[in-house]
User: Which sequence fits this backbone?
């Protein structure tokens, strides 16, 4: 990569894309291109072709995707499958047709098998049944990873993929119907503290184990891979550390200052019982995370409070 390369970050305003843009800028990359959903609908094949014809990007980061928590995946599986597949097919094919020098495709560790070996190695993909609560999303994203591999194998395209773990931080989604667990907790505990509520209800038992990565660390790893990796196999991005959902809730409580009771609704699903990534491959390349969970939650809550008027906050 050259500092003057034109870099298209698809999804540049989202949690992932905005962090990648920040990291690129910090490293001296200034020719960065982005389009909002209103300006370019990535599910529209003609629109995507027109964009590539006009802009001719050198590097593409595909960070745009339809994402959500257990509730969103459970109630809108057709949308998660269709929209993600459309976006991936359109962008990946255009990257090939317009001879993009490098494409980075972002998957997610939630697409590994439900009962995968722990910590999860890269070669665990497609070795067992998927988690039912996000099956549609997983199938779509697996298709994207495999498509990148096949274009590399058949045409020699420099298309690489990464598999980030659970992410959080600036520009996260705080919509209680569609958000992931950590931002949902931040919002719930904040609003409970503000209203003087005596308790907050959370889904499941609190027993599942999860790994969380501050989004700016994820972005740093992505740019590291863009600059240093061209292998066919995707690369896990994570901390290699895990915490129970119950412990996570207690940490968010302390950070927010909520002193009421946490009520666990055991009639609601827990999701995958454990999901920890094996990050030996990334560590061997020389990259490690910097922000530990407690500090990351503090930074995320600070951003939430400072941007509460503009954050994605539907689902009241």
Assistant:
């Amino acid at each position: 990569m050259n500092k003057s390369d034109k870099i298209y970050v698809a999804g540049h305003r989202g949690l992932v894309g905005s962090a990648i843009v920040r990291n690129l800028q910090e490293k001296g990359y200034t020719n960065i291109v982005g389009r909002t959903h209103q300006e370019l609908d990535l599910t529209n094949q003609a629109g995507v072709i027109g964009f590539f014809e006009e802009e001719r990007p050198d590097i593409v980061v595909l960070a745009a995707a339809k994402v959500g928590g257990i509730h969103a995946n459970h109630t809108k599986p057709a949308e998660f499958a269709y929209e993600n597949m459309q976006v991936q097919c359109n962008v990946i094919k255009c990257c090939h047709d317009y001879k993009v020098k490098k494409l980075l495709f972002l998957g997610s560790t939630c697409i590994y098998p439900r009962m995968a070996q722990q910590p999860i190695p890269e070669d665990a993909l497609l070795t067992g049944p998927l988690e039912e609560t996000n099956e549609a999303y997983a199938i779509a994203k697996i298709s994207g990873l495999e498509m990148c591999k096949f274009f590399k194998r058949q045409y020699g395209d420099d298309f690489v993929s990464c598999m980030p773990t659970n992410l959080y931080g600036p520009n996260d989604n705080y919509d209680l119907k569609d958000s992931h667990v950590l931002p949902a907790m931040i919002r719930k505990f904040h609003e409970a503290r503000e209203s003087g509520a005596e308790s907050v209800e959370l889904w499941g038992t609190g027993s599942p184990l999860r790994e969380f990565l501050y989004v700016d660390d994820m972005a740093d790893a992505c740019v590291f891979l863009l600059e240093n990796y061209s292998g066919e196999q995707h690369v896990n991005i994570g901390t290699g550390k895990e915490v129970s959902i119950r412990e996570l809730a207690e940490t968010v409580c302390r950070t927010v200052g909520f002193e009421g009771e946490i009520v666990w609704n055991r009639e609601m699903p827990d999701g995958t019982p454990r999901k920890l990534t094996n990050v030996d491959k990334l560590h061997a390349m020389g990259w490690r995370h910097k922000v530990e969970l407690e500090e990351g939650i503090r930074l995320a809550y600070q951003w939430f409070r400072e941007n509460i008027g503009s954050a994605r906050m539907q689902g009241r």
Notes: DSSP finds ten helices and 13 strands in the chain. The two ends are 44 Å apart (CA to CA).
